[in-house]
Amino acid sequence: MRAAVLHEIGQDKLEVLDDVEAVGFGPGRVRIRVRATGLCHSDLSAMAGVLPQPAPFVPGHEGAGEIVEVGDGVKHVKPGDRVVVCWLPACGACPACGRGQTELCLAGFVNAGTPNFRRPGGDVFGFAGTGTFAEEVVVDAGCAVPIPDDVPYDIAALIGCGVTTGLGAALNTADVAAGSSVAVIGCGGVGISAIQGARLRGAAEIVAVDPVASRREAALDFGATTAVSPDELPDARERVTGGEGFDYVFEVVGRSATARTAYDHTRRGGTLVIVGAGALDDFLQLNMFELFFDEKRILPSMYGGGDVLRSYERTIALWRAGRIDLESLITHRVPLADINEALDQMRTGAALRTCVEL
């Protein structure tokens, strides 16, 4: 079958090969025919070595498709079922799951260290234990979440990561209050979803911050009340909050520099939400006095900070009701053969989300 493979960490191009085999099928596992997958910035981060990932590997973790085959013991899905790929399934048995913090379950990370694919030259891993830049994937049954037949594959793919992460950051982690002021730094697919979440919660002012003009324009269509470049953020803070700072600031870039900017633009007693996935060696510096004196809450948000399955259901319900716009998030579509074009669209900021159709 065909799959896009990164041979070595640090390379910026994928090679689309037709000699890749999905492996690991057996009890408790499922085989999925991938129909659509989104390109998330985390894929680029893994390729660059910012996020730890063994190579060679097939990127992609934001996917949807149909069940081809189920292993022994799998009861919740059957061949032909439409599913979204969940890259962080909950085991249901660990302490985190027992506390209801299923987004902190580590079982899915164990999968990342087991090869998902094989080529004549040897084993190939799948990013985040999945690898959806392939025509088929074999994953733990918990990674296959059934969805209604009226949810298109491209929409379902977005729900698998970016939308769930952004919406959840606003609805679960921050629990944005009605009438509040919000700033979102980084307005790709995840940031736009955070903006939609803040709008749903009734935020009075939502300032979108991004260096790319097209993304700023898009943010206004999705619910932002103001859109500015990073250099214009201090003026926006003065204009919108009288200089006090925002009630909520979402950092959706994954860099210490933007996290520091986000902290500085959060009001005393306000909430900074860290959504972007950054590097292990990128440290955020805060002094002990400001931590004590400002009493700002710093809340990391992992995969939307809530139960993933419930978040999927909520997102589908909101989409059906017309309360959130998912179709417009997909600004570009490419076949798997043009995956490197999709990578360039993400790097330049030209795309909110590129859908790769398989």
How would you summarize this macromolecular structure in one to three sentences?
The protein is of the alpha/beta class and 358 residues long.
Helix and strand topology:
Elements: E1 3-5, E2 15-17, E3 21-22, E4 29-38, H1 41-48, E5 57-58, E6 62-70, E7 82-85, H2 95-98, H3 107-111, E8 117-119, E9 122-126, E10 136-140, E11 144-146, H4 153-159, H5 162-173, E12 181-185, H6 189-200, E13 205-209, H7 213-221, E14 226-228, H8 233-241, E15 246-251, H9 256-264, E16 266-274, H10 288-294, E17 297-300, H11 308-320, E18 330-335, H12 339-348, E19 353-357
Parallel strand pairs: 5-9, 12-13, 12-15, 13-14, 15-16, 16-17, 18-19
Antiparallel strand pairs: 1-2, 3-8, 4-6, 4-10, 4-19, 6-7, 7-11, 8-9
What does this structure look like?
With 358 residues, the protein is α/β, with parallel strands linked by helices. 29% of the residues lie in helices and 26% in strands. The chain is built from 12 helices and 19 strands. It has helices at 41-48, 95-98, 107-111, 153-159, 162-173, 189-200, 213-221, 233-241, 256-264, 288-294, 308-320, 339-348; strands at 3-5, 15-17, 21-22, 29-38, 57-58, 62-70, 82-85, 117-119, 122-126, 136-140, 144-146, 181-185, 205-209, 226-228, 246-251, 266-274, 297-300, 330-335, 353-357. The strands form 4 sheets. Strands 4, 6, 7, 10, 11, 18 and 19 form a 7-stranded mixed β-sheet that branches. Helix 5 (162-173) packs across helix 11. The longest helix is centred in the last third of the chain and has 13 residues, at 308-320. The chain is globular.
